[in-house]
């Protein structure tokens, strides 16, 4: 997870449809405070990477205003 100017970015992995790949997904969530509670609205989400299982370790993935960095 990362905070990018009030937006929460979440990256997660899940098994690919064929059972041999690992898919990496990312979501960008706009966070706001309403009546003392935190609310989130998903701006976008999508699969950003697909790799063979066993060959991937996610250490760091970030997005800045110019794109992925």
Task: Describe the protein's architecture and organization.
- The protein has 69 residues and is mainly beta.
- The chain has one domain.
- 0% of the residues lie in helices and 67% in strands.
- The strands form two sheets. A four-stranded antiparallel β-sheet has the order 1-2-3-4, with no helix packed on it. A two-stranded antiparallel ribbon has the order 5-6.
The proportion of residues forming helix, as a percent range, comes to under 10%
Number of domains: 1
Biggest sheet statistics: 4 strands, antiparallel
Percent in strands? over 45%
Structure in a nutshell:
The chain has 69 residues and is mainly β.
Keywords:
single chain; 69 residues; mainly beta; two-stranded antiparallel ribbon; 0% helix; elongated
Question: How is the topology of this model organized?
Answer:
Layout: E1 2-4, E2 7-15, E3 21-34, E4 37-52, E5 63-64, E6 67-68
Antiparallel strand pairs: 1-2, 2-3, 3-4, 5-6
């Amino acid at each position: 997870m990362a905070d990018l100017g009030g937006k929460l970015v979440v990256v997660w992995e899940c098994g690919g449809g064929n059972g041999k790949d690992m898919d990496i997904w990312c979501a960008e969530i706009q966070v706001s405070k309403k009546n003392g509670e935190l609310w989130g609205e998903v701006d976008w989400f999508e699969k950003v990477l697909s790799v063979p299982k066993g060959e991937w370790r996610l250490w760091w993935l970030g997005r800045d205003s110019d794109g992925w960095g």
